[in-house]
Specification:
This protein has 22 helices and 32 strands. By secondary structure, it is of the alpha+beta class. It starts with 19 loop residues before the first strand and ends in a 45-residue tail after the last helix.
Length: 919
């Protein structure tokens, strides 16, 4: 496409150079920049151009352009906005996706820029803007629709506007009411509360009361009576009447039209294929709710304008008010557009060089404009991080038929390619011990044992009340977390399981199981001592690679081979792995191109081999999807610009990072659906909704709400207090809206679950040192008081304790009086401990109990100390409440004035009928 300076509006110079949002309002047919302080404020009489620039992990800048049309905007202004959008796309190199947004029918992507909602205001540039700020507050009624993003529309303040299907917000001067239609979903109610918070902050300076009104509950409390009084009293609601907005276009047949001389002519074809689209023409793809404008790479700016004009004309027809127009450029089509065709090739050879973008950049640079952002940004180079505490305790089982066999610590790091394994990793979390239970499938493992591994792992997770995160991992697709947990890993050929041996016998294939005295070649890889692997490969010269180091052995003969591109760090890893594979044997170092004849003889002679390092797909920018399973069919809805608040406790979500995916499961999801979480993840990989060539063997993580691991929460600005709240999405959000934040602690601290299957033995010297947990063999005494714990610790015999386990740690505040330092307390005699116990019986009110309310903030301490201390707490259970004795610790206490019916600040949790009546 030819580009000239006359085609570029000066207002767009320098646009899209950095990530963020830029908005222009059309004033007198020209775009005028909107200051950032006014972003999200739209006037019904105006048209706007919105540019969203996103920086991807690869360093490239991606652009989405929207033009928004208010319901009262003029046709000329709307046309100007459409044309200016095409011009802005040209200024950005002709690669942006463009969207037409009509007030009240905006796309989910557009609304995600302005969470929680937009509420257009009356007026516009032509009418001089009606400033509502100076006016007295007017009572307004809004209807809210949407489960993930909310469409907000003001309706007439009348009872006839209400219905049972939607959610309504009544904004009065002193109080905001949310009316929940009886047929509305919990998720819709929760999202509407975000709008309530927005109205409170925007129009009330954050100072007004909030009330929730349930449809069908008549006069349940004072708020309900007050709400209906504003409508003149309660009366049955009318049934919702169907209108144009409720019509759907599911039955609309898809049509392809070619734009010729500003006219759209149908394209006759038996089926829609990519070959119908010519690069020197523009097309319209009419799908009912979506109208796509496809512009070939070799079309001119005028041709693209004409195509947009033809699309606008088509949308002026009847019943098209809800239709979205989306313009795409050849080579940069959206997944939604591609999915409309019966066949679309994985890759299309299109000349997509920096030509268009570079020409624009050169033109602007001559005028002194900074064009840094118009070209590809520098890629962000990051070393992959595990985002998990690597000092935990690891247990590994090998699957044998329908059983699992626990491996001794010395064999945990040696796994066979013909077997399946289950691992349980327990590590210190934020306030409790966390668990990760996973399965690893070798490339040569049999399907029966893979299914058995999944079943056994699921039972382990179920026995721990679905708290652990889960992982399904295939050999060759291991994530960084897996390698960091094992730290040192050796993958051997063949297998030890009955399933593998049976397969070898039935298929009559050679058994390649590793033999210590045989010939074996290992490729050594990794980033350091905490992440290193030795992978057994075919013992032939073609298995070598100049970028790696190798270990070759035959009986007592051992060679180490260093490729010419290998680093000194790689050579150090070889020495470490050599100590594990062939300890106490002297190796013969070989460097590339200086090998001995004996070395080549063991490999069967010389052969060609590669020199490039094995590169795995990089992690892409994460994308979040809400999952809907109906009749075993998986449907997904993408959540744009997602946050933690988009994760609803009633639903399942998938976070797609390309190299791996996470299935997030809410607490309110039923147990049956929780058991199918892995199946949902597998279906997502199989369907490949984004057409990104997802591997069916990509790692799948299953994450339970409230136990999210750090390698999942890193994709969010995470507030752990929110994920630990009780109740459904609406109840949680209502608590946050009323109190301004999530409670610090919503429930008493849980006891740390004991690891499934017990603890592993002490690692041998070949294993790295892990922080060992307490032995499960230790006796747990129910109802111990702190003083009794101190006494037991004093009398306890050191010989009776498992010496591989650190001695139990007791909180200093429990063990030592404030006036005694820990050092001096070490010299305390047994009699002093008895005296302390006696004193505790005399002053029972001083015995600390497990708090039920929010705990006081603790000073920052060493993480390991905190973890060990919290583990000790998990070994002590609260003292039993005596029969007939009221346990009132943790019960909230309110001021007397707040319990009266005349209180200006009544307690919301107490029924009005229970408050004291003052005459």
């Amino acid at each position: 496409m030819a580009v000239s300076m006359r085609d570029l509006d000066p207002a767009f110079h320098g646009a899209g150079q950095k990530a963020g949002l830029e908005i222009w309002r059309i004033e007198n047919f020209l775009p005028v920049i909107v200051p950032q302080s006014s972003h999200g404020k739209f006037f019904m009489g105006d048209s706007y151009v919105i540019l969203k620039t996103t920086a991807s992990k690869s360093g490239a800048l991606r652009h989405d352009i929207h033009y928004w049309l208010g319901k009262d905007t003029s046709q000329d202004e709307a046309g100007t906005a459409a044309i200016k959008t095409v011009e802005l796309d040209a200024a950005l190199g002709g690669r942006a996706v463009q969207y037409r947004e009509v007030q009240g029918h905006e796309t989910a992507k557009f609304l995600s820029y302005f969470k929680p909602c937009i509420i257009p205001q009356e007026g516009g540039i032509a009418s001089g803007f009606k400033h509502a700020e100076a006016e007295e507050h007017t009572t307004r009624l809004f209807v809210c629709k949407g489960k993930h993003v909310v469409h907000v529309k003001e309706v007439s303040f009348a009872r006839s506007s209400l219905n049972h299907d939607d959610i309504f917000i009544l904004d009065t001067k002193s109080k905001i009411f949310q009316f929940n239609g009886s047929n509305s979903s919990i998720q819709e109610r929760a999202k509407a509360l975000e709008v309530v918070q927005y109205i409170k902050d925007t129009y009330h300076d954050g100072k007004c009361d909030i009330a929730s009104i349930e449809d069908g509950k008549l006069m349940a409390d004072a708020d309900t009576g007050e709400f209906w009084a504003l409508f003149g009293g309660f009366a049955p609601l009318p049934k919702k009447t169907a209108n144009d907005e409720d019509k759907n276009f599911d039955s609309h047949s898809t049509k392809l039209l070619r734009v010729e001389k500003e006219k759209a002519e149908p394209v006759e074809a038996d089926s829609l294929t990519r070959e119908l689209l010519e690069t020197n023409k523009c097309y319209l793809l009419d799908c009912g709710l979506e109208l796509f404008v496809w512009m070939g790479r070799n079309t001119s700016l005028d041709e693209r304008r004409s195509a947009s004009g033809a699309a606008e004309e088509l949308l002026r027809g009847p019943d098209r008010s809800k239709s979205h127009m989306i313009r795409v450029i050849e080579g940069f089509e959206t997944v939604m557009f591609k999915s409309k065709f019966d066949s679309w090739p994985q890759t299309v050879d299109v000349a997509v060089s920096e030509d268009g973008r570079g020409k624009v950049a050169a033109l602007l640079k001559r005028q002194g404009v900074n064009v840094k952002g118009l070209l590809k940004a520098d890629p962000v180079k990051e070393e992959p991080q595990p985002y998990i505490d690597c000092t935990g305790n690891l247990l590994v089982w090998r699957v044998n038929g329908q059983e699992k066999i626990l491996l001794p610590a010395s064999d945990q790091s040696k796994i066979y390619s013909g077997d399946c394994y289950i691992f349980q990793y327990s590590y210190p979390g934020e306030d409790k011990e966390e668990h990760l239970i996973g399965t690893w499938f070798g490339k040569q493992s049999v399907e029966e044992e893979r299914a058995s591994a999944i079943s056994l792992a699921s039972k382990m997770v179920e026995s721990l009340k679905f708290l652990p995160a889960q992982a399904r991992i295939y050999e060759g697709n291991e994530p960084i977390q897996f390698y960091s947990i094992f730290q040192s890993l050796i993958v051997l050929k063949g297998g030890l399981s009955d399933g593998y041996k049976k397969y070898v016998a039935e298929k009559e294939v050679p058994d390649e199981t590793y033999q210590e005295d045989g010939v074996a070649l290992f490729r050594v890889q990794g980033s350091g001592p905490d992440n290193m692997q030795a992978i057994q490969v075919e013992a032939v010269a073609s298995s070598l690679n100049s970028s790696y180091c190798y270990i070759l052995h035959s009986g007592s003969t051992v060679f180490t081979w260093s490729g010419s591109l290998a680093t000194t760090d790689d050579q150090e890893l070889v020495e470490r792995q050599l100590d594990l594979i062939k300890p106490n044997l002297q190796s013969k170092p070989q460097k590339e191109n200086t090998e001995s004849e004996q070395f080549w003889d063991l490999l069967g002679g010389k052969a060609e081999y590669p020199s490039q390092k094995i590169v795995r797909d990089a992690e892409s920018d994460p994308r979040l999807f809400s999952c809907i399973v109906s009749n075993e069919n998986l449907k997904v809805v993408e959540i744009y610009n997602f946050t933690q608040d988009d994760l609803m406790t009633e639903d399942m979500f998938i976070l797609d990072c390309h190299t791996d995916i996470f299935v997030w499961v809410g607490q309110e999801v039923n147990s049956k659906d929780k058991m199918h979480a892995l199946t949902i993840g597998e279906k997502f990989l199989e369907r490949d909704f984004l057409m990104e060539k997802l591997s069916h063997e990509a790692p799948i993580y299953i994450v339970m709400e409230g136990s999210e691991p750090p390698f999942f929460t890193r994709f969010f600005t995470w507030d752990s207090a929110k994920s630990k709240m009780h109740g459904n999405s609406f109840q949680r959000k209502l608590t946050i809206v009323k109190h301004g934040r999530a409670p610090t602690v919503d429930k008493p601290k849980r006891r740390t679950p004991v690891s499934y299957g017990g603890r592993s033995s002490v690692p041998e010297k070949s294993q790295r040192s892990r922080s060992m947990s307490f032995s499960p063999d230790r006796v747990r005494v129910r109802g111990r008081s702190p003083a009794f714990t101190a006494l037991a610790a004093t009398f306890e015999s050191a010989n009776a304790r498992n010496l591989s386990t650190p001695p139990p740690m007791v909180r200093k505040s429990q063990l030592y009086p404030k006036s005694v330092t820990p050092d001096s307390s070490k010299l305390a005699s047994k009699s002093s401990a008895i005296a302390e116990l006696t004193a505790s019986f005399e002053k029972t009110n001083n015995i600390p109990r497990s708090p039920k309310g929010p705990p006081k903030p603790k000073p920052e301490t060493n993480n390991k100390d905190t973890f060990m201390s919290s583990k000790m707490e998990s070994l002590t259970i609260e003292e039993d409440v005596k029969e007939g004795e009221a346990e009132d610790e943790g019960v909230p206490i309110y001021p007397y004035e707040r319990l009266k019916t005349t209180s200006t600040d009544p307690v919301a949790e107490i029924d009005v009928t229970k408050r004291e009546v003052i005459n």
